[in-house]
Amino acid sequence: MTSLTVKEAAERLRSFDNVLILTHLRPDGDTVGSAAALCEGLRALGKTAYLLPNPGLTDTTAPYFRPCAAWAGFEPRQVVSVDIATVDLLPENARPYADRVDLAIDHHPSFEGFGRENLVRPSAAAAGEIIYDILAELGPITAEMALPLYVAVATDCGCFAYNNTTAHTHAVAAALLQTGIDFHAVNKTFFRTKSRKRLALEAAMLSEIEYHDRERVAVLAVPLSLIARVQATETDAEDLSALGGQIEGVDCAVTMRELRPDVWKFSLRTGPRVNATKACALLGGGGHAAAAGCTVEAPFAEAKRRMLEAIAQVVPDFTL
Predict the structure, then answer these.
(1) pLDDT tens-digit series, residues 174-230
(2) Dist CA 164 CA 292 (whole Å)
(3) Residue among 234, 288, 230 at smallest CA distance from 259
(4) Strand 263-270 and strand 252-260: pairing?
(5) CA dihedral defined by 77, 83, 84, 85, rounded to 10 degrees?
(6) 95 contact partners, CB below 8 Å, separation of at least 6
């Protein structure tokens, strides 16, 4: 694995052209915003750059993605991945590029170093912070780059409320605001607007919540039957993992989302007592110390049991 500095990554990108940028499965604001900003930055240098279409886009992330989406048949000379820790997180249409990634840019401690060259900074609250530093090396950061970058940074640190937020996170956000972007609209869309279907989902999740480990661990489930009952879309179900962490006394919120029958996507949001990425790594996943995920194929009760046992393995004082 060849590791690059920000300056070295910027120089590599200066030499690239006809670039295809990859985003991860079930794309969030960080992967979409980072990729879109990088695409705009490369285009400002006169490069040809596109984002590989991602079928998992939601109504909130799609507007930032569409201007950079690749046309059918585009043949890249170089491939860059953004905010992707492992090739297992590539959407199906990105799998053919798994062994063709020339530069991988990521901020997860569980990053697997699959690129020919890699830039990883686990201390960054978002991949957007790293992309900002790269773009700052390449030239002036325009409002067209700054708006998706703000989406990337703000969404991955919970609008600067999560404990991954650092002084550098705030410094990046401040610099982005100075370009004149409408950050108020971004904050309203991502943090202060909920559809009625979303509220129905949250109400159902909270009504069936389970507590474990002296009520410090909360398990919230989103089965397919619930999604169908309230007729929720992917946009309605976006970032449901943030809900459990708001409960007083809970320092480990476990959200179980059923992707297909008996296939559960776990999302953990934790405090210092529970290392989320260590727990999820025991089940084949990864992420950050306070935010991680994994997928388990099993009936609900069995999947839940496996996760609770994984948490117990990394938390010495865990009690059922």
Answers:
(1) 999 999 999 999 999 999 999 999 999 999 999 999 999 999 999 999 999 999 999
(2) 13
(3) 234
(4) antiparallel
(5) 130
(6) 87
